[in-house]
Amino acid sequence: MTVRIAAVGDVHVGLDFRGRLGPGLTQAGTCADVLLLAGDLTRVGAPEEARVLVEELSGVSVPVVAVLGNHDLHADRADEVVGELRDGGVQVLDGDSTVISVDGWSLGVAGVIGFGGGFAGRSASEFGEPEMKAFVRRTVDAARRLEHALGALDTDVRVALLHYAPVPDTLGREPAEIHAFLGSYLLAEAVDRAGADLVLHGHAHRGTERGMTPGGIKVRNVAQPVIDAPFRVFELQPGPRQLRVPPVNGDDAPPSARSTRQAHGVWQ
User: How confident is the model at residue 240 (pLDDT cuts 50, 70, 90)?
Assistant: First the structure.
Protein backbone atom coordinates (compact mmCIF):
# COMPACT_ATOMS: atom_id res chain seq x y z
CA MET A 1 0.00 0.00 0.00
CA THR A 2 1.35 3.43 -0.94
CA VAL A 3 0.05 6.88 -0.04
CA ARG A 4 0.71 9.21 -2.97
CA ILE A 5 1.02 12.93 -2.27
CA ALA A 6 1.09 15.57 -5.00
CA ALA A 7 2.43 18.94 -3.86
CA VAL A 8 3.21 22.37 -5.26
CA GLY A 9 3.57 25.87 -3.88
CA ASP A 10 3.94 29.43 -5.14
CA VAL A 11 1.54 29.23 -8.07
CA HIS A 12 0.80 32.98 -7.63
CA VAL A 13 -2.54 32.90 -9.42
CA GLY A 14 -3.68 36.19 -10.95
CA LEU A 15 -6.84 37.14 -12.76
CA ASP A 16 -5.13 36.28 -16.05
CA PHE A 17 -4.51 32.67 -15.03
CA ARG A 18 -7.79 31.18 -16.22
CA GLY A 19 -7.08 27.99 -18.13
CA ARG A 20 -3.35 28.02 -17.42
CA LEU A 21 -3.04 25.79 -14.32
CA GLY A 22 -6.09 23.58 -14.60
CA PRO A 23 -4.82 21.10 -17.22
CA GLY A 24 -1.68 20.38 -15.22
CA LEU A 25 -3.28 20.27 -11.78
CA THR A 26 -6.06 17.98 -12.98
CA GLN A 27 -3.44 15.29 -13.56
CA ALA A 28 -2.92 15.08 -9.78
CA GLY A 29 -6.08 13.03 -9.55
CA THR A 30 -4.60 10.36 -11.81
CA CYS A 31 -1.34 9.86 -9.93
CA ALA A 32 -1.95 10.94 -6.32
CA ASP A 33 -4.37 10.52 -3.43
CA VAL A 34 -4.21 14.15 -2.29
CA LEU A 35 -2.97 17.50 -3.58
CA LEU A 36 -1.14 19.76 -1.10
CA LEU A 37 -0.62 23.47 -1.82
CA ALA A 38 2.31 25.10 0.02
CA GLY A 39 1.21 28.73 0.08
CA ASP A 40 1.45 31.80 -2.16
CA LEU A 41 -1.67 30.61 -3.92
CA THR A 42 -2.51 34.10 -5.19
CA ARG A 43 -0.53 37.02 -6.60
CA VAL A 44 -1.55 39.76 -4.15
CA GLY A 45 -4.09 38.11 -1.84
CA ALA A 46 -7.23 39.24 -3.67
CA PRO A 47 -10.34 37.07 -3.17
CA GLU A 48 -10.96 37.28 -6.92
CA GLU A 49 -7.60 35.57 -7.49
CA ALA A 50 -8.55 32.81 -5.06
CA ARG A 51 -11.76 32.34 -7.05
CA VAL A 52 -9.71 31.83 -10.21
CA LEU A 53 -7.59 29.22 -8.42
CA VAL A 54 -10.74 27.39 -7.35
CA GLU A 55 -11.84 27.31 -10.98
CA GLU A 56 -8.46 25.88 -11.98
CA LEU A 57 -8.79 23.21 -9.27
CA SER A 58 -12.31 22.21 -10.28
CA GLY A 59 -11.06 19.22 -12.29
CA VAL A 60 -8.94 17.80 -9.47
CA SER A 61 -10.62 14.62 -8.27
CA VAL A 62 -8.68 14.18 -5.00
CA PRO A 63 -8.83 16.17 -1.75
CA VAL A 64 -6.96 19.49 -1.85
CA VAL A 65 -5.31 20.83 1.31
CA ALA A 66 -3.50 24.16 1.52
CA VAL A 67 -1.76 26.71 3.68
CA LEU A 68 -1.54 30.38 2.81
CA GLY A 69 1.68 32.25 2.04
CA ASN A 70 2.88 35.82 2.41
CA HIS A 71 1.41 36.83 -0.99
CA ASP A 72 -2.00 35.65 0.18
CA LEU A 73 -1.80 38.04 3.14
CA HIS A 74 -0.70 41.13 1.19
CA ALA A 75 -4.12 42.71 0.58
CA ASP A 76 -5.18 42.20 4.22
CA ARG A 77 -8.14 40.13 3.00
CA ALA A 78 -6.96 36.71 4.12
CA ASP A 79 -10.35 35.78 5.60
CA GLU A 80 -12.00 36.39 2.24
CA VAL A 81 -9.30 34.42 0.42
CA VAL A 82 -9.79 31.51 2.80
CA GLY A 83 -13.55 31.77 2.37
CA GLU A 84 -13.29 31.53 -1.40
CA LEU A 85 -10.98 28.53 -1.15
CA ARG A 86 -13.14 26.70 1.37
CA ASP A 87 -16.28 27.39 -0.64
CA GLY A 88 -14.45 25.76 -3.54
CA GLY A 89 -13.68 22.62 -1.55
CA VAL A 90 -10.09 23.44 -0.56
CA GLN A 91 -9.26 22.71 3.07
CA VAL A 92 -7.08 25.52 4.41
CA LEU A 93 -4.94 24.80 7.47
CA ASP A 94 -3.54 27.36 9.90
CA GLY A 95 -2.06 25.69 12.94
CA ASP A 96 -4.41 22.73 12.69
CA SER A 97 -4.58 19.42 10.89
CA THR A 98 -6.74 17.16 8.78
CA VAL A 99 -6.94 13.39 8.30
CA ILE A 100 -7.50 11.80 4.90
CA SER A 101 -8.39 8.14 4.43
CA VAL A 102 -6.52 6.36 1.66
CA ASP A 103 -7.60 2.74 1.05
CA GLY A 104 -7.92 2.03 4.74
CA TRP A 105 -4.75 3.92 5.74
CA SER A 106 -4.77 7.37 7.32
CA LEU A 107 -2.79 10.39 6.13
CA GLY A 108 -2.48 13.26 8.58
CA VAL A 109 -1.51 16.72 7.35
CA ALA A 110 -0.60 19.47 9.81
CA GLY A 111 -0.29 22.92 8.29
CA VAL A 112 0.94 26.37 9.22
CA ILE A 113 2.27 29.29 7.19
CA GLY A 114 5.33 29.68 9.40
CA PHE A 115 7.43 32.82 9.43
CA GLY A 116 10.99 34.11 9.33
CA GLY A 117 13.73 34.67 11.83
CA GLY A 118 16.63 32.74 10.38
CA PHE A 119 18.53 29.61 11.20
CA ALA A 120 20.82 28.31 13.93
CA GLY A 121 23.75 30.63 14.52
CA ARG A 122 22.28 33.35 12.29
CA SER A 123 18.85 34.06 13.70
CA ALA A 124 16.91 36.88 15.27
CA SER A 125 16.16 36.81 18.97
CA GLU A 126 13.22 37.96 21.05
CA PHE A 127 15.11 40.92 22.50
CA GLY A 128 15.25 44.67 22.14
CA GLU A 129 12.76 46.71 20.18
CA PRO A 130 9.05 45.85 20.37
CA GLU A 131 9.03 45.32 16.61
CA MET A 132 11.83 42.74 16.82
CA LYS A 133 10.18 40.92 19.69
CA ALA A 134 6.88 40.82 17.79
CA PHE A 135 8.65 39.46 14.71
CA VAL A 136 10.23 36.59 16.62
CA ARG A 137 7.13 35.88 18.67
CA ARG A 138 5.14 35.30 15.50
CA THR A 139 7.59 32.57 14.49
CA VAL A 140 7.61 31.09 17.99
CA ASP A 141 3.80 30.93 17.89
CA ALA A 142 3.78 29.34 14.42
CA ALA A 143 6.25 26.67 15.55
CA ARG A 144 4.23 25.98 18.70
CA ARG A 145 1.01 25.54 16.73
CA LEU A 146 2.73 23.30 14.18
CA GLU A 147 4.14 21.09 16.92
CA HIS A 148 0.74 20.80 18.59
CA ALA A 149 -1.03 19.99 15.31
CA LEU A 150 1.51 17.32 14.37
CA GLY A 151 1.61 15.83 17.85
CA ALA A 152 -2.16 15.49 17.94
CA LEU A 153 -2.18 13.31 14.82
CA ASP A 154 -2.47 9.56 15.33
CA THR A 155 -2.24 8.51 11.69
CA ASP A 156 -0.27 6.03 9.60
CA VAL A 157 1.55 8.83 7.76
CA ARG A 158 2.13 12.40 8.98
CA VAL A 159 3.11 15.33 6.76
CA ALA A 160 3.94 18.90 7.78
CA LEU A 161 2.78 21.47 5.21
CA LEU A 162 4.39 24.93 5.43
CA HIS A 163 5.07 27.98 3.33
CA TYR A 164 8.26 29.21 5.00
CA ALA A 165 11.33 26.99 5.06
CA PRO A 166 12.26 25.06 8.22
CA VAL A 167 15.89 24.46 7.18
CA PRO A 168 18.51 26.40 5.18
CA ASP A 169 19.30 23.35 3.03
CA THR A 170 16.49 24.10 0.58
CA LEU A 171 17.30 27.80 0.13
CA GLY A 172 19.80 27.08 -2.63
CA ARG A 173 20.81 30.23 -4.50
CA GLU A 174 18.74 32.59 -2.35
CA PRO A 175 21.03 35.39 -1.07
CA ALA A 176 22.27 34.77 2.47
CA GLU A 177 21.19 38.30 3.38
CA ILE A 178 17.50 37.36 3.09
CA HIS A 179 17.60 33.90 4.70
CA ALA A 180 16.10 35.34 7.88
CA PHE A 181 13.02 36.30 5.85
CA LEU A 182 12.65 32.88 4.20
CA GLY A 183 12.18 30.66 7.23
CA SER A 184 13.19 29.64 10.72
CA TYR A 185 14.96 26.79 12.48
CA LEU A 186 12.17 26.86 15.06
CA LEU A 187 9.87 25.17 12.54
CA ALA A 188 12.33 22.30 12.11
CA GLU A 189 12.68 21.92 15.87
CA ALA A 190 8.90 21.69 16.17
CA VAL A 191 8.75 18.97 13.51
CA ASP A 192 11.56 16.99 15.13
CA ARG A 193 9.88 17.10 18.53
CA ALA A 194 6.46 16.08 17.23
CA GLY A 195 7.63 13.68 14.51
CA ALA A 196 6.66 13.55 10.85
CA ASP A 197 7.39 11.56 7.73
CA LEU A 198 7.86 14.46 5.34
CA VAL A 199 7.96 18.27 5.43
CA LEU A 200 6.83 20.28 2.40
CA HIS A 201 7.31 24.02 1.92
CA GLY A 202 7.60 26.72 -0.73
CA HIS A 203 8.57 30.42 -0.64
CA ALA A 204 12.23 30.03 -1.72
CA HIS A 205 11.92 30.48 -5.49
CA ARG A 206 15.68 30.25 -6.05
CA GLY A 207 16.04 27.34 -3.68
CA THR A 208 16.73 23.66 -4.14
CA GLU A 209 14.40 20.74 -3.59
CA ARG A 210 16.09 18.62 -0.95
CA GLY A 211 16.86 19.17 2.70
CA MET A 212 16.65 17.49 6.07
CA THR A 213 15.83 18.56 9.63
CA PRO A 214 18.49 18.08 12.31
CA GLY A 215 16.48 15.06 13.46
CA GLY A 216 16.64 13.39 10.04
CA ILE A 217 13.20 14.16 8.62
CA LYS A 218 13.13 14.81 4.88
CA VAL A 219 12.29 18.37 3.79
CA ARG A 220 11.23 19.20 0.23
CA ASN A 221 10.86 22.63 -1.37
CA VAL A 222 7.93 22.35 -3.80
CA ALA A 223 7.80 25.97 -4.95
CA GLN A 224 6.78 25.82 -8.59
CA PRO A 225 9.80 27.85 -9.79
CA VAL A 226 11.98 25.19 -8.14
CA ILE A 227 10.28 22.01 -9.31
CA ASP A 228 9.39 23.50 -12.74
CA ALA A 229 6.34 21.24 -12.99
CA PRO A 230 2.63 21.38 -12.15
CA PHE A 231 3.39 19.39 -8.98
CA ARG A 232 5.78 16.84 -7.50
CA VAL A 233 4.59 13.41 -6.33
CA PHE A 234 5.83 11.68 -3.18
CA GLU A 235 5.02 8.06 -2.41
CA LEU A 236 4.93 7.06 1.26
CA GLN A 237 4.33 3.54 2.45
CA PRO A 238 2.89 3.29 5.97
CA GLY A 239 5.02 1.16 8.22
CA PRO A 240 7.99 1.13 10.57
CA ARG A 241 10.60 1.78 7.88
CA GLN A 242 12.10 5.23 7.25
CA LEU A 243 11.23 7.53 4.39
CA ARG A 244 13.47 6.52 1.52
CA VAL A 245 14.18 8.94 -1.32
CA PRO A 246 16.49 8.07 -4.23
CA PRO A 247 19.71 10.12 -3.99
CA VAL A 248 20.47 12.98 -6.36
CA ASN A 249 24.11 13.91 -7.06
CA GLY A 250 25.25 11.47 -4.43
CA ASP A 251 23.19 13.07 -1.66
CA ASP A 252 22.35 9.97 0.34
CA ALA A 253 23.42 10.83 3.86
CA PRO A 254 21.82 8.51 6.45
CA PRO A 255 19.22 10.22 8.62
CA SER A 256 19.41 10.37 12.37
CA ALA A 257 17.43 7.93 14.51
CA ARG A 258 13.71 8.44 13.97
CA SER A 259 10.44 7.21 15.36
CA THR A 260 9.37 3.74 14.24
CA ARG A 261 6.07 5.31 13.18
CA GLN A 262 7.69 6.97 10.19
CA ALA A 263 7.20 5.86 6.64
CA HIS A 264 9.35 5.11 3.64
CA GLY A 265 8.65 6.16 0.11
CA VAL A 266 9.78 7.04 -3.36
CA TRP A 267 10.11 10.50 -4.79
CA GLN A 268 9.08 10.83 -8.41
Answer: low
Question: Which residues, 6 or more positions from 8, have their beta carbon under 8 angstroms from its beta carbon?
Answer: 25, 35, 36, 37, 38, 202, 222, 223, 224, 227, 229, 230, 231, 232
- Decide: helix, strand or coil at residue 184: strand
For the packed helices 47-57 and 78-87, what is the interaxial angle rounded to 10 degrees?
A: 20
First to last CA, the chain: 16
pLDDT for res 1: 76
Q: What percent of the chain has pLDDT over 70?
A: 89
The Cα–Cα gap between 185 and 263 comes to: 23
* Domain 3-267 part of CATH 3.60.21.10: yes
Query: How far apart are alpha carbons 250 and 112 in whole angstroms?
Result: 32
Q: Tens digit of pLDDT for each residue in 200-217?
A: 999 999 999 999 999 999
Distance between CA atoms of 159 and 34, rounded to whole angstroms? 12
What contacts 67, CB < 8 A, 6 or more positions away? 37, 38, 39, 92, 93, 94, 111, 112, 113, 161, 162, 163
Assign 237 a pLDDT band (cuts: 50, 70, 90).
confident
- pLDDT (mean) for 140-154: 97
Cβ proximity of 160 and 191 under 8 Å: yes
